[in-house]
Design goal:
The chain is mainly beta. Helix content is about 15%, strand content about 45%. It contains two helices and ten strands, in the order H-H-E-E-E-E-E-E-E-E-E-E. It has helices spanning about 5-20, 25-30; strands at about 40-45, 60-70, 70-80, 85-95, 100-105, 110-115, 120-125, 130-140, 145-150, 160-165. The chain has a ten-stranded antiparallel β-barrel. Strand 8 (about 130-140) and strand 9 form a beta hairpin. The longest helix is centred in the first third of the chain and has 17 residues, at about 5-20. It is globular and about 35 Å long. It starts with a helix and ends with a strand. The relative contact order is 0.21.
Length: about 170
């Protein structure tokens, strides 16, 4: 069970990340931004702004590219882990659709993407039908930063890992 302290720490880290995100766009320009899926874009890991919780496979560097191909969100993740292992993960999921195959990410074989609202994307990864990892993704107001907050894949409780990426 997740303690109140862990949840409070996670919320504090999430708020700090959001506050620290650069904000150069004006309020009127922000209201004119189209509703896009937060992962869409070319992203590079910002280690200085990332907080890893316990048991996370820490990255040395990571980048990913996501785009929309018709109704599918297609993503390719290129990662170098703390022990120098290189991984290339891929998926193409329809938001609010059925589970889609995941390739190249250990202990995950499918993902289900959902949009609780237009500015968020939730992703739940499973292995042989059992949920094993989940996150919520959202962009900074100016669209230059992407925050991914880990969640329990079943209860949806916020966990302690917050990964931050910068748009390339």
């Amino acid at each position: 069970m997740i303690s109140v302290r862990v949840v409070a720490l996670t919320l504090a880290v999430s708020a700090a990340v959001a506050i620290a995100a650069p904000r150069t766009a004006s309020h009127s320009a922000l209201s004119e931004l189209p509703d896009t899926i937060p992962l869409v874009g070319h992203w590079r890991l910002d280690l200085a702004r990332t907080h890893y919780g316990n048991g996370v496979d820490i990255r040395q560097r990571e980048s990913f590219i996501c785009d929309m191909s018709g109704p599918r969100l297609r993503c390719v993740i290129r990662s170098v882990r703390h022990d120098s292992r290189e991984l290339v993960g891929k998926f193409a999921a329809v938001p609010d659709g059925p589970p889609a195959p995941v390739v190249g990410i250990p202990d995950m074989d499918s993902v289900r993407a959902s949009r609780p609202n237009p500015s968020l994307l939730d992703a739940t990864f499973s292995f042989h039908g059992t949920p094993v990892f989940a996150y919520r993704a959202y962009q900074s107001r100016d669209g230059r930063s992407l925050m991914i907050v880990s969640m329990d894949p079943v209860s949806r409780a916020v966990l302690t890992t917050v990964v931050v990426y910068e748009r390339e």
